[in-house]
Specification:
The protein is of the alpha+beta class. The protein is 45% helix and 15% strand. It contains 19 helices and 15 strands. It binds protoporphyrin IX containing FE. Protoporphyrin IX containing FE binds at residues 23, 30, 32, 39-41, 45-46, 51, 56, 59-60, 63-65, 68, 74, 77, 473-474.
């Protein structure tokens, strides 16, 4: 490591002209003489009265994210450090917990306790966070921007520690696998471990990429694992869990979304009864553009049946342009007389609704994990921004109206996480069938509440960030992205109003017949 030159502040002050332009940012000395013509913010900003030869820390952090100084092309501008001083501002440290108040759930905040998470969960969380920071975060920033599928390297790395398998939750599919380099055994792995993974995934702050990172598998594979024949499972599951083949869930259609009984894709049996012939279309299918397998909801003679379709003759996928990145692989899928062996039926013929309902619960729970964690990201960003940004001569957080917005954001996020942990505990203690019955209403309400809260917090965050909250680069980039992508959470896995109604109808069914005021 080269030792940096040291300067006194008096020495730096002498370099205060357009042709000899130094500044101090967080005790580091930068020579901007040649850079000034390339500065994206223009020359004049650098020549303002209190900048040349001065300490520009406050001015800099009012306009730039810290990561700007870490980019190699800008890092080189540093020529030294102020004698006897140390930089105080710390950038992103891979694997580290945030020390911003409320930016982590209580169980990850020093000094707080949890009835749910033990020491093993904590070690597991630390390893998963480091993994995502090291391998996934950089890829997320690239792919969200260029819209290409998440890199195969990332899928392979995830497969090495069996993350694809763990994202399916606890169960037989984990048997014999080494999880996260042995940090947890398949028998110990519970829904709290899965919650950790689902929450760490979203910290990359790239919603389209988050879905591109095989969200299709998270919702498309469980019906195969839970209802597929042993032959089907042994043929297709290993490659999927190794990140070599891809699967998606194909239920919603141009004609019907949350209303699964309104679906129009048909599956009819061939005369010999050995095959299904499937025709119809599916819309908004996450990972559909690159999927090898489709878990398809079909209208059959007996009602509604779920069937696994393999990419082949008669299957076509086209990308759909949505508000987030094409990296998610959102597709319009058409099935034109696709011939599928009846052995690919998942669950009973006509029993698709049970397959779907149990799957919906897990899908909605995953989405609640993600939404709860994304809202922490908002807190992290807003707490920092409102402390470092000055308006009317004072930091933004000196304004009561800003603090009121932060209060709402924090209270909602804490409530969601606490409710989520309670439901997760119930899941740990209920069979899959019991979960389908007892938790459908709870999860419907939690998802509805999470996504309404998220939309409110995203709107509040935009108000705090002002123009930067609608700008795709710079200080507000995560806020702009989140605000743009937040409606996805409120629609995928069931629209808010539909879920709210589902929860109430389930509660009504549980009303004792003799209940009176
Ligand atoms: C090492 C020193 C600096 C570097 C590497 C740098 C780099 C950049 C970059 C990359 C941007 C584009 C926006 C972004 O990505 O955040 C930017 C914007 C800007 N910079 Fe700098 N800058 C430096 C110092 C300064 C200083 C000392 C000032 C003076 C106040 C300044 C004022 C601005 C302004 C006004 C903008 C436009 C911000 C906006 O559009 O919101 N910069 N700078």
């Amino acid at each position: 490591m080269s030792t940096l030159k040291t300067f006194t502040r008096e020495e730096v002050e002498k370099h205060n002209t357009e042709d000899d332009l130094w500044v101090v940012i967080d005790a580091k000395v930068y020579d901007l003489t040649r850079f000034k013509n390339l500065h994206p913010g223009g020359i004049s900003a650098l020549l303002e009265e209190d900048i040349p030869g001065q300490d520009a820390t406050e001015a800099f952090y009012g306009l730039h994210r810290h990561e700007v100084l870490e980019r190699p092309q800008y890092k080189r501008l540093q020529i030294g450090i102020i004698e006897g001083e140390q930089p105080q501002i710390v950038g992103k440290v891979n694997g580290a917990l945030s020390d911003i108040p409320f930016a982590e759930p209580t169980w990850l905040t020093p000094g707080y306790h949890s009835p749910y998470f033990n020491e093993k969960h904590r070690k597991f969380q630390a390893a998963v966070r480091k993994f995502f920071d090291d391998y996934v975060y950089p890829d997320a920033q690239l792919r969200e921007a260029d819209g290409k599928r998440p890199s195969q390297d990332v899928f392979d790395k995830m497969a090495e520690v069996n993350l694809h398998a763990m994202r399916m939750g606890p169960g037989k599919h984990l048997k014999g696998l080494t999880l996260m380099n042995g940090l947890v055994t398949p028998e110990e792995f519970d829904y709290f471990h899965e919650l950790i993974i689902q929450q760490e995934v979203v910290r990359c702050g790239a919603r389209g990429y988050g879905d591109g990172l095989l969200a299709g598998c998270v919702i498309g594979l469980p019906p195969v694992l839970n209802f597929g024949s042993p032959e089907l499972k042994s043929r297709i599951v290993p490659d999927i869990l190794q990140g070599k083949k891809f699967i998606c869930l194909a239920v919603s259609e141009a004609h019907a979304g949350s209303d699964v009984f309104g679906l129009q894709t048909t599956a009819t049996k061939t005369e010999d009864g050995k095959h299904w012939i499937i025709s119809g279309n599916k819309k908004w299918i996450t990972n559909g553009t690159f999927a090898d397998y489709f878990t398809v909801g079909c209208k059959t003679e007996d009602g509604f049946t779920v069937i696994l379709v393999e990419r082949g003759d008669g299957v076509e996928t086209k990308p759909i342009k949505t508000a987030y990145s094409a990296t998610a692989g959102t597709a319009y899928v058409t099935f034109d007389k696709v011939k599928v062996p009846v052995e690919n039926t998942l669950g009973e013929e006509g029993g698709g609704i049970f397959v779907m309902l149990s799957n919906f619960n897990h899908e909605r729970w995953v989405m609640c994990c993600a939404s709860a964690r994304s809202q922490r990201l908002l807190i992290d960003e807003c707490m920092k921004w409102t402390a470092q940004r000055k308006a009317f001569g004072k930091p933004l957080n000196t304004q009561a109206v800003i603090r009121a917005k932060l209060a709402g954001m924090i209270a909602r996020t804490e409530a969601i996480q606490a409710w989520l942990e309670n439901i997760t505990y119930q899941m740990c203690n209920m069979s899959y069938k019991e979960q389908a019955n007892k938790l459908a209403g709870q999860l419907a309400f939690l998802k509805m509440y999470s996504t309404r809260s998220a939309a409110q917090s995203a709107a509040d965050a935009v108000q705090m960030f002002g123009g930067r909250g609608v700008t795709q680069t710079g200080m507000g980039k995560f806020i702009e992205h989140y605000h743009r992508a937040v409606p996805f959470d409120s629609l995928l896995g069931g629209a808010e109003d539909v879920l709210a109604d589902l929860g109430v109808r389930q509660a009504m069914r549980g009303m004792p017949s003799n209940a009176r005021l």
